[in-house]
Amino acid sequence: MILEDRIEANVSVWRERVARMIKEYGDFVISNVTVQQIYSGIRGVPIQVSDISFVDPDHGIRYRDYSINEILKLLPKAPGSKYPMVGGLYYLLMDNELPTLSKAKEVEEEWKKRATVPDYVFKIIDSFPDDGSAMAMLSAGVLSMSCDSKFSKAYHESVGKNDYWKSTLDDSIDLTARMPQIAAYIYNKKYRNNQQIDPDPKLDYAANFAHMIGKGDDPLYSELMRLFILLHADHENANVSAHTAHLVGSALSDIYLSCSAGLNGLAGPLHGLANQECCNWLLDLYHFYQGIPSKEQIEEYARKTLEDGKVIPGYGHAVLRCTDPRFTAEMEFAKAHFPDDELFRTAMAVFEVVPGILMETGKVKNPWPNVDALNGALQYHFGVTETDYYTVLFGLSRMLGITSHVVFARAVNKPIERPKALTTRMLESMISEQ
Ligand code: NMX
Ligand code: MLT
Asked: Based on the structure, what is the number of domains in the chain?
């Protein structure tokens, strides 16, 4: 299988690089940790190595060292499409090589072969009330597949440590192959009277998802989903969801257990749920002023949000210190295809006003929009108006990055992750003894 062959060809080089770093530079100090950092979510402290992606604070995400703009240009496109095929993106994330169109298609074909979702997954999802959390359904559906884990089986059959990555990759391809139908099943159960649509094997990954939620007639929605999945696939291995999945995976839990845990983190309002919160905030703003608000009205509304002790969703970031290039890519998509959409215009008006207000607070480190500031408005344009579903779209996409990080960790035999906790008393003593 194409991904296994590529990784197999490179795995010894990766291992040698890691072994050499540890042997020759094991004592090299990367950073010191301050009292402020240890009390503040270890923000900015380097705790991971992963070559899959990196968030440059001033320029944004790079996948395998390619910027979003480069990726959009260089990855192969489905025939008749302007946006890259998801299969090519997965190839690049899993291995440091830009795929040709035929390699991208090979990944897509592999997904098609493995796309059948076990029946028990649907039963688990069906056991939730229709108004249950879409993210809880997704996480539970993913978790349930742990019983089929090929890694788990291999582990219990005493397969050697150096081969763990192979069955982890196998599980990852099974999981990512099934994700579009699982995500679509949740959408149809919750919002389309459970009218399910069978996958169409003729379609590529993103278009097939669009088809399965009843949006197959609009080719532009498939284009949006190709872009959306690409933009949300990864954001280095230290954000809440990827780091959680990595941590769980470091105990040699299988990919389903790890990814389900990651999805639970993604479901928080400060992380992936912000796209739902942001769209609701934009809609409330739009309805409150009965149309696209003026700058003064946005200012009033944003200040009220802050006075109420809430955050302005879609703005700020723990690492980024610039406008998120993922936001810019989404903005360009909307400008090219529906510049007059009223919710999009509202989001653009907010973009002109909110950074200034956040700067005025004097405490927000990054006043600029992140990817969540526009996600919802774009989905809304295509009639995907159920905001409590948006994080599922994020989760569908993020499985690509998370599984790549876990496979990489297994390939280089990363050990169990177990940092150290201290007590306040210990900190006080350390400080007083200085
Ligand atoms: N609106 C209001 N206040 C904010 C915002 C915002 N958008 N962003 C940061 N702050 C506040 C933050 O709450 C903190 O206040 P306090 O000291 O009173 O606790 C202060 O500014 C300093 O925070 P930062 O160091 O700038 O940000 P931090 O790293 O703590 O948090 C986020 C990062 C992303 C959690 C934060 O910016 C936020 O809550 N943004 C809104 C939610 C959001 O858009 N999340 C999506 C992130 C991207 N994603 O997709 O996951
Ligand atoms: C993400 O895409 O994961 C978010 O921007 C959050 C992060 O990187 O911390």
From this structure: 1
